[in-house]
Design a protein that fits this description.
The chain has 397 residues and is of the alpha+beta class. It is built from eleven helices and twelve strands. It has a four-stranded antiparallel β-sheet with strand order 1-6-7-5. It is elongated and about 105 Å long.
């Protein structure tokens, strides 16, 4: 999704090409899911005749300052994007509008024509964006609830360390919290944690001062570099995890090291286990879980082998095994004591699975014998009762 670098690229494109120009035409989509809290007619009327003074951004939000309020505000969501006709604006995969598509795009939510003939459009294919008309965008949500902007209002190392020491949630989840720091989304968070060699599940409060210094440095470098190249991912450094993080899980590598994928803060997170390790109690707990899992896996594998071995032994035994099994069957006609004292089956095969099969056979034989004895006793009782009922009753004198 568009994060700080992509939204900043859109803001700069508007700032460089549209400021000082008057809006002569406006077409707003009839889409109440995206156009929030205002009718299309009122939105269009509020734009016509206005001059664009400047373009602003905080976090992943952008708004245009006109010569009088209200001002259009854009929350980019999953696939929001700005396009200017005839001007190269950085495209990213999910914006999904191609140069060969119709203009304005069928996904356009706000289309504007300026007095010099220039046209721009805010599009959103997936309809998770929000476009609002606000008197003061900074005084109301979502912008009023944002934390310091990662580019414009960077924390000092000391402030960042003090803030993290109070947070017991994972560092990845905290970086995604826009009320803590605004502008960092999923890919930027993965990148800065990879560059800082911090595990995404590491508790924020447990990070050492050295780790926080590394994190502070990587946030600055990743944000500044991606903004410098206009969020054009083709120009990102080749050793960034960004280039591999959206590939299918499996044998995915960065600098020859394997990338793993886990879910942190509700988002799929890419990291390199060899370089990004849990520390402190979390490392011990993780190792304990891994050991427990290995034991469970071994037990499960052994159980599977036992089941398969038993099934195999039942399907086809060695000649000696067949002979012994027939002996058990013959003894089933006798008493339970005969079966219990028959240890000859233990010598059939030294495979534990075969011993288990023989024991199963003994148990079934006991059950059959017991059932036969019970039936015989019941039959005897019924015959006795029938015989008694059949005797003639003595007549009273």
């Amino acid at each position: 999704m568009p994060e700080l670098p992509e939204v900043e690229a859109a803001r700069r494109a508007i700032q460089d090409n549209c400021v000082g120009k008057k809006i002569t035409k406006a077409i707003v989509a009839d889409d109440s899911k995206v156009i929030d809290g205002v009718s299309r007619a009122d939105f269009e009327a509020s734009l016509l005749g206005k001059t664009i003074i400047s373009a602003h951004r905080k976090g992943k939000n952008m708004w245009l300052q006109l010569d009088s309020p209200p001002f259009p505000s854009f929350q980019f969501g999953m696939a929001g994007a700005v396009y200017i006709k005839g001007v190269a604006v950085t495209k990213y995969k999910r914006s999904a509008v191609k140069d060969t598509d119709e203009w304005p795009s069928k996904y356009s939510k706000v289309f504007v024509q300026l007095d010099d003939g220039l046209e721009f459009s805010f599009t959103d294919k997936r309809r998770f964006a929000k476009v609002r008309l606000l008197k003061d965008p900074t005084s109301v949500p979502p912008i009023s609830e944002l934390g310091p902007d990662a580019l414009l209002e960077p924390m000092t190392v000391d402030v960042l360390f003090a803030s993290l020491s109070k947070k017991k949630i994972s560092i990845k989840a905290l970086l995604l919290d826009q009320s803590f720091i605004s502008g960092i989304g999923n890919w930027v968070a993965d990148e800065v944690l990879y560059q800082a060699r911090i595990h995404p599940e590491q508790s924020s409060a447990t990070l050492s001062k050295e780790c926080v210094e590394a994190l502070h440095k990587s946030i600055k470098e990743v944000i500044e570099k991606s903004v410098e190249v206009g969020a054009d991912s083709d120009q990102f450094p080749s050793n960034w995890i960004f280039h591999s993080r959206e590939k299918k899980p499996g044998n995915v590598l960065v600098d020859g090291k394997k990338i793993d994928f886990i879910t942190v803060g509700g988002r799929t997170s890419a990291f390199v286990p060899e370089l990004q390790k849990l520390t402190g109690n979390q490392a011990a707990n993780a190792e304990s879980k891994r050991t427990s899992k290995r034991v469970d896996d071994v037990d499960e594998e052994a159980s599977d082998k036992e089941v398969k071995g038993t099934a195999k032994s039942r399907k086809g035994r060695k000649p000696g095994g067949q002979a012994k099994r027939s002996t058990v069957k013959r003894k089933s006609k006798g008493s339970d004591e005969d079966n219990d004292n028959d240890d000859s089956t233990d010598d059939v095969d030294h495979d534990d699975n075969d011993d288990s099969a023989d024991e199963d056979m003994k148990n079934r034989t006991r059950k059959v014998t017991t059932n036969k004895q019970s039936k015989a006793e019941m039959t005897s009782k019924k015959k006795k009762q029938t015989s008694q009922n059949a005797k003639p009753k003595k007549r009273a004198k």
